[in-house]
Amino acid sequence: MNLIVFIGLIVLGYLAGSAAEKNHYRSIEKRESEMADLPIVTISKLPQNMDATNSRLVNGSVVISIDYFKRILAQLINIVGGKVISYESLVDRARREAILRLKEESRGYDYIINLRIETSTIGNAANSKNGVGSVEVLAYGTAVKVAGNETGL
Amino acid sequence: MKLDYRQPDATVNVSKVSPLKRAVQLFLGLSVTFVTIYVVLGVLVNILAPKIPMSLEQKMGSAILNEWTVGNDNETVNSYKDILVKLVGEEVAATYTIMILEEAELNAFAIPGNIVGVTTGFVEEITDEEMIAFALGHELGHFENRDHIKSYGRLFVLYTMVNTLTGSDGSLATAFLDLLSKTETKFSQVDELRADVYGAALLYDTYGSYDGGIDFFNYLSEDYDGSHIVSYFESHPHPEKRVQRLMDMTELE
Prior knowledge:
The complex is a heterodimer of chains A (153) and B (253). Chain A has 153 residues and is an alpha+beta fold.
């Protein structure tokens, strides 16, 4: 009986998780190209020839959970070692989504500088040795409005 | 400094390996590995477990009995002892202890330390002397073959393996435990059939027929598919198979 429930959850997780991931990637790629005109960099200071007329702290965060199938795949990989491929797309999606949200919060500004990214696990599995339940990615930086809005830093 | 914008490349941080293919490979590979290790360890336990000293066996028995409430139905215990004396004689019967365990489910166990545990469910439902004699003889068969020690040894190996490799609280542990339990069932079904033969032989020597065993399994068959007795058979062969075996023995006689 346990085995039937287990297999049922895996199939459900795989189908639902794959569909959700595909949709999310489609949305991410579309919004990334729409917001390509807002530069985002990791340098902490503007070059001397640029004057900031306005600036503010901006952040974008997202929490994404993996599906049951990927959770089990990660546990299997934990036994034999190797790349935990089931977490790779989770972290990739979360990081890109957090940056997109950061950009959405920075509309009306010319640049985002001093970009930093933090990652943590949250939810019931956060303190469990069995691994990641949900991953939170927080992206933060400084949105600046530049006098004259030159085309590059 | 000129900014050069480029779309993130999704192939850099995410491996292009099919997760489904990888999961199937890993699950099948690990299942074969676990079952092979378990079968090898199970055979080793079967060889080594019977060699443990009686003092250790008695300690194991005490630990197991701590999980049960032992009844004080001395009248039943004495009547069962009388049947045991008929089966194996006074001297051998004296080496065994009979205990009534408070449990509604019909069951009987061979507990380490030469203890025959019989549930109150058994006492209430099985009243025919020859049926009781067969059940007691069956448990003596487990003692004779040291099945009780082998079985606990294999379970110990099973839980240790699964918990060590997958973590005791994971869903994966449950799946592998289920898989290995099926292997354990195969081990224990062989033990059960062998104990049946032993019990049947004692029954025939004492009462001149196998009727007690046949009646016992026929009684259990009636409830096999839909009652509290089902769980009794999780590690046991189907009663009809066991009846057939006794019928075959009758014909041979």
